Amino acid sequence: xxxxxxxxxxxxxxxxxxxxxxxxxxxxxxxxxxxxxxxxxxxxxxxxxxxxxxxxxxxxxxxxxxxxxxxxxxxxxxxxxxx
Amino acid sequence: xxxxxxxxxxxxxxxxxxxxxxxxxxxxxxxxxxxxxxxxxxxxxxxxxxxxxxxxxxxxxxxxxxxxxxxxxxxxxxxxxxxxxxxxxxxxxxxxxxxxxxxxxxxxxxxxxxxxxxxxxxxxxxxxxxxxxxxxxxxxxxxxxxxxxxxxxxxxxxxxxxxxxxxxxxxxxxxxxxxxxxxxxxxxxxxxxxxxxxxxxxxxxxxxxxxxxxxxxxxxxxxxxxxxxxxxxxxxxxxxxxxxxxxxxxxxxxxxxxxxxxxxxxxxxxxxxxxxxxxxxxxxxxxxxxxxxxxxxxxxxxxxxxxxxxxxxxxxxxxxxxxxxxxxxxxxxxxxxxxxxxxxxxxxxxxxxxxxxxxxxxxxxxxxxxxxxxxxxxxxxxxxxxxxxxxxxxxxxxxxxxxxxxxxxxxxxxxxxxxxxxxxxxxxxxxx
Lengths: 83, 432
Ligand SMILES: Cc1ncc(COP(=O)(O)O)c(C=O)c1O
Description:
The structure holds 2 protein chains of 2 kinds.
Chain A: H1 3-16, H2 40-54, H3 60-63, H4 69-82
Chain B: H1 8-20, E1 31-34, E2 37-40, E3 43-47, H2 60-73, H3 81-84, H4 88-101, E4 105-109, H5 112-123, E5 129-133, H6 138-146, E6 150-154, H7 159-168, E7 176-181, H8 193-203, E8 206-210, H9 225-228, H10 231-236, E9 239-243, E10 253-257, H11 270-273, H12 280-295, H13 297-316, E11 320-321, E12 328-332, H14 336-348, E13 351-352, E14 354-357, E15 367-371, H15 378-394, H16 406-414, E16 426-427
Helix pairs in contact in B: 2-12, 4-12, 5-6, 7-8, 13-15
The complex binds pyridoxal-5'-phosphate.
Pyridoxal-5'-phosphate (PLP) binds near residues 112, 139, 243 and 432 of chain B.
């Protein structure tokens, strides 16, 4: 795992703190829909907020296979590197 | 494990709905009496959720024309236009639509859903970008999924957010196509089209407007939001898509445009090529309805009078309605259980409208969605208001003292402006 990946993942978790109860622990293995009980609406809004936080565009098909927080961090990290 | 096991949660939701009373998604009408009344379980029921904006489904000229063509040309085309050829009626309908919209080209599809599926998936190819409003209709999301373009959402009705996202893409090669709706089907709000057209010009993107709910409803001649927004904005709209299934009272979809080489789409657009074309009788009633829409602007006047009466009436009674008056009038309720109960009581009272449950709604609130018709009488609208008020009090939605103070009401309205979801959710009268 690269340093930028770890940083991205940490920032994603930090962002999720605003919508996930403090009692829930989040790691790279945490599954976004199943473990965090976020509905599709909340997930899509969160993706949009990530786009703004990192100043990137995350096309919908790039997140269709995303299951865990690490999956998401990987996608975001790749897109950030593109700039 | 059955192949259908993955739908267990969905099935459970439906089972719970059935337990409350009539399942809103399994309504069967014994008979349609008029554009605004149907028989349900032997009872005359007011229809307030049909998208039949001009009430043309029972227009005598449309029916007469359709019947004659039915006798002359038969019941169906039994194939696609590519394989079986076009009838004169296909060309005539396309020419009439192009003329009405003052555009050079028109393509007719078998439904509005397919028009979006076809146009989005074909126009935007690999390396191109689709920019979709987050509250877009399922047919727009599905069209985006069918194609190979990168799909980006922007915040609902937020031109600045759109601009920001297009700026992030400015060094990317590939065409960018912005897609918005004239009137959004859930809350009845219109797109800020002038501002969006401005963003389109500044960024060199293309712009498509789905006028499904605004054709025949907005604009002096009924051409929709683009016309209402003024000539400069209308000229900036590269593609208009729409449907015959609402104000024109039949079935089918279309796209009109001024773009060069438009006709190449006829041999590239799969949802156009690989499905049977519309039956001639359907096209005959559609052409007649398009003429009626132009001849009878008073239908639009009556439609808006009805829409305002319902919108203001509900608002004054203290219901949380959408952000602006429009023929789509939705009441937001606290939770789904309450919404289902409310909907059932309205039906028992003789009023049918749409129930939309999250995640099919733009916010977490379930909606009781009405669509008003020019064919409704004020008596029918007033009856609807009366039922809403009575049930609202029975279920504690309305306080015993009528009308919320102005400031509080404004605050509740703001709560509706969330961004939306992408799920195919639960919408009674599926396909709004
Ligand atoms: C915005 C929008 N676009 C497209 C459609 C699809 O139209 P049709 O019913 O003709 O398939 C609908 C409604 O059904 C709609 O609300």
